Amino acid sequence: MMYEQQQQMKMDVKKKTGRNRTPIQEERLEIMDLSGMSLETLPNPSLNLGTICKLDLSNNNLQSIPESLTARLLNVVVLDVHSNQLQSLPNSIGCLSKLKTLNVSGNLLQSLPKTIENCRLLEELNANFNKLSRLPDTIGFELVNLKKLSVNSNKLVFLPHSTSHLTNLRILDVRLNCLRSLPEDLENLINLEVLNVSQNFQYLATLPYSIGLLISLVELDVSYNKITTLPDSIGCLKKLQKLCVEGNPLASPPVEVVEQGLHAVKEYMSEKMNGAHKNSPKKKSWIGKLVKYGTFNGANMPRDQDREGFIMPNYRSIDGLASPRYMGMFSPRRLFSPKTYFTR
């Protein structure tokens, strides 16, 4: 009896009010708070689970959540189960079509159910401090409304390629993992403002060029990794206000540039990128090579010097390529015979 009274005292139920509601919306939407009660199993609720809009089960000792219970939370918008002993989430979590905020941090989760992709209104996913080794492969294709993805302090080796399709994402926190690399096409994250990939320690050694194409990026933390070179494209991050690179064996930009601050780093990377652009060898057209080696003017063609490419040292007319009677301007005879034609 005392236990039931304690539960009743902890239950915080508030009525949601609003105008122009449909008959279904006029039902009482309630907040249930069962946090910090050392629960090992969930009590059988006396109210209709379909009327709950926020369920807080955090700071308990729950090892599982019944499939049947989750499936009936049809109107839940916020589900908080952080700081429990959960080893898995129920597959029926995919039934939560109105879910916008999910906090499962501080558990023992090794994976997220694939059905989480059905929660297409989800805007915030917090799965910090678990044992996640991977995320669902197609998570980025389905959770198109996700604005914050926080999966720090896990065992992630890589992020699925579909992550780059989270075009509404604003915060991506993947620090304290085992990341070897990041997806190559990050430039699709056009709304990303904060990216934290710090403290992947000996695992993360390179960053993709596309990281400099994140047009909305304000904060970038790549500290305490094994990165030796920042992508030149960092110089393109016009909105960047905070850059953390300490704890890396950086060679480019050099330490003396980093010590001068963000503006100096951006300027250095921008100049390096432009310089590489200018110094890159230009492709020469085949016509240019013909002119260079005197094919258009046999009188100026050196016969005894070494030549580049596939130009043969001794030129001969290639009679098999043209009729002797055809003397048109672009006859192969004229193009490849050094002395018969186009002499001065």
Automatic annotation (TrEMBL):
One of its GO terms (cellular component) is cytoplasm. Residues 1-10 have a biased composition (Low complexity). The keyword Repeat applies. The keyword Glycoprotein does not apply. InterPro entries: Leu-rich_rpt, Leu-rich_rpt_typical-subtyp, LRR_dom_sf, LRR_domain-containing. PROSITE patterns: LRR (PS51450). This is Putative plant intracellular Ras-group-related LRR protein 6. It comes from Davidia involucrata.
